[in-house]
Q: What sequence folds into this?
């Protein structure tokens, strides 16, 4: 079975709640790869493992639940929705040296930008420069002592060096500043676990889970603790995951994904090649929000307007699709792909004359192709203009004599 068939059937099983079947069909897509089918297959594989794990946990099968939570976390390490997952996949492909250099330049001029400082520190750490990474964070804490994220990341570096006492102090400071810092609660739980305080670890993990109920990594740790605590009333609990969790995102996710869309022109095209499934609304609603956010920064990019129109078309929003593709053509009047798409959209909207006009514009821009003339013929037929349709089909056949659709259309008109 090919990737597309595995994806289509796996998604159908997932949406029907047949999670074991979904896992079986989507697992072949979990291998490394950046194609849209493999990426989204891996995302929904994580979702299927998570839902299956929740069912097992509710039956007190904690070991089996932990196994599936672990596999869910492996497929989607951040536990994010679609936007965060895709942003993580594409951001991970950037060169660390380039990231570190750009972040260092930015932080030099914006010392209070904690997000950029953390990005710099993490790049330095991954490049094997732990001393520089710690210095970067310490400088940030001096400038921004009330940043929960800086305290958290500093604790992470101490924990990585197995200095759990110091790490715990920074995690405690992070949650004191921000009670909703799920990652800090999780790390604090790990410090308690390292010290042998299982109940305190369970309390912190429960807090993390309540803040991020879809985080499979946290849920996996809860399963382990639940199996070790004999008193049912003292066990942490797992909240059911909502169906809409795949679409959740914050602005940081959307902005990071938007950078990938701008940097990689084929990004949206690859996703539009996905086979139609029951999760199209989830996937393409996130892509639409991403492109619209990117357009706020780059309103002059014709490609972004064109891709936004294509995504709206996939979602069935024809009016908005026309609006965005028209903007692409306004920016670049010789944008052949946009002109042809616009003609198709006008045809669907029964505005055949506008469609013909756009196709004539495409021909003037160099698209004197048989398919374009065939489409002109279809539009003229829709407008009850048989003679013009015949001329268009004849032109298509003069450019490509082996064109069965054009030949059949011409014969049907009684040529």
A:
């Amino acid at each position: 079975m090919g990737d597309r068939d595995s994806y289509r059937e796996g998604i159908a099983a997932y949406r029907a709640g047949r999670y074991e079947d979904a896992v079986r069909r989507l697992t072949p897509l979990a291998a490394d790869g950046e194609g849209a089918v493999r990426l989204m297959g891996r995302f929904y594989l994580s979702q299927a493992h998570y839902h299956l794990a929740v069912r097992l946990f509710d039956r007190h099968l904690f070991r089996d639940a932990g196994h599936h939570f672990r596999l869910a976390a492996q497929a989607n390490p951040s536990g994010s929705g679609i936007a965060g997952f895709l942003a993580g996949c594409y951001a991970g492909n950037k060169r660390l040296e380039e990231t570190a250099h750009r972040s260092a330049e930015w932080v030099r001029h914006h010392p209070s930008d904690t997000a950029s400082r953390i990005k710099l520190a993490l790049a330095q750490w991954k490049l094997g420069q732990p001393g520089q990474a710690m210095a970067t964070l310490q400088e940030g804490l001096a400038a921004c002592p009330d940043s929960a994220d800086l305290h958290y990341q500093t604790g992470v570096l101490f924990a990585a060096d197995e200095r759990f006492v110091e790490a715990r102090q920074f995690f405690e400071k992070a949650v004191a500043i921000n009670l909703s810092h799920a990652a800090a609660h999780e790390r604090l739980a790990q410090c308690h676990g390292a010290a042998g305080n299982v109940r305190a670890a369970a309390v912190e993990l429960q807090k993390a889970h309540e803040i991020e109920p879809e985080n499979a990594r946290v849920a996996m740790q809860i399963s382990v603790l639940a199996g070790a605590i004999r008193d049912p009333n003292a066990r942490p609990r797992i909240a059911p995951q909502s169906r809409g969790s795949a679409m959740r995102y914050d602005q940081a996710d959307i902005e990071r994904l938007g950078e990938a869309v701008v940097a990689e022109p084929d990004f949206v095209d690859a996703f539009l090649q996905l086979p139609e499934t029951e999760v199209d609304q989830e996937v393409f609603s996130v892509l639409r929000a991403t492109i619209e956010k990117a357009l706020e920064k780059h309103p002059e990019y014709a490609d972004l307007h064109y891709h936004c129109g294509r995504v709206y078309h996939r979602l069935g929003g024809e009016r908005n699709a026309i609006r965005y593709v028209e903007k692409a053509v306004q920016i670049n009047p010789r944008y052949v792909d946009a002109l042809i798409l616009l003609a198709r959209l006008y045809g669907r909207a029964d505005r055949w004359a506008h469609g013909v006009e756009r196709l004539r514009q495409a021909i003037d821009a160099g698209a004197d192709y048989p398919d374009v003339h065939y489409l002109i013929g279809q539009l003229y037929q829709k407008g009850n203009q048989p003679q013009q349709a015949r001329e268009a089909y004849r032109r298509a056949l003069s450019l490509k004599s082996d064109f069965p659709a054009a030949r059949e259309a011409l014969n049907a008109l009684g040529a």
Remarks:
- The CA atoms of residues 21 and 114 lie 44 Å apart.
- The chain is about 75% helix and 0% strand.
